[in-house]
């Protein structure tokens, strides 16, 4: 069993075509049934907000957005409560000039002693500085 913390950037790249979609889809295709993919409790909401932005700013049809939310709901992501990681997330945000949202993924990875899977370069740099391993997603 592999334990990984998956950032919203990876989930969104899976759902909405981008430069790393092929690599991200390959990553998800190789996830084993007993692997645990962790995401903060707000992660699904964060991803849904990105889908809403596609409607609002990129004229994505509502039916397509609803289909994507359905796919999101079925992804093998385990939501992690944040209450015990809030202080760490704030500290990391201050230390690395990141949003608390991005820092929460790093805090969860630290707490779970699990690698972080992210396409966000600032978040990846901060995670590395904090000693969090990064799981590769193709050639970034």
Structure notes:
This protein has 140 residues and is α/β, with parallel strands linked by helices. It has a single domain (3-129), classed as Rossmann fold, CATH 3.40.50. Helices cover 56% and strands 11% of the residues. It is built from seven helices and four strands. It has helices spanning 8-15, 21-29, 43-58, 62-74, 86-96, 100-112, 121-129, and strands spanning 3-6, 36-40, 77-80, 116-117. Strands 3-2-1-4 form a four-stranded parallel sheet. Helix 1 (8-15) crosses helix 2, helix 3 packs antiparallel against helix 4 and helix 5 packs across helix 6 (100-112). The longest helix has 16 residues, at 43-58. The protein is globular, with a radius of gyration of 15 Å. 32% of the residues are buried.
> Would you state the CATH class?
Alpha Beta
- Evaluate the radius of gyration: 15 Å
> Main beta sheet: strand number and arrangement?
4 strands, parallel
Query: Looking at this structure, what is the CATH superfamily?
Result: 5'-nuclease
Determine the strand fraction and express it as a percent band.
5-15%
Question: What is the CATH third-level topology name?
Answer: Rossmann fold
**Coarse structural class:** alpha/beta
Overall average residue pLDDT: 96
Between the first and last Cα atoms, what is the distance in angstroms? 25 Å
- What portion of residues is helical? 55-70%
The largest sheet has its strands arranged as 3-2-1-4
User: How many helix segments?
Assistant: 7
Model regions low in confidence, pLDDT < 50 over at least 5 residues: none
Return the string of H and E elements: EHHEHHEHHEH
CATH architecture: 3-Layer(aba) Sandwich
Described by the principal axes of the CA atoms, the overall outline is: globular
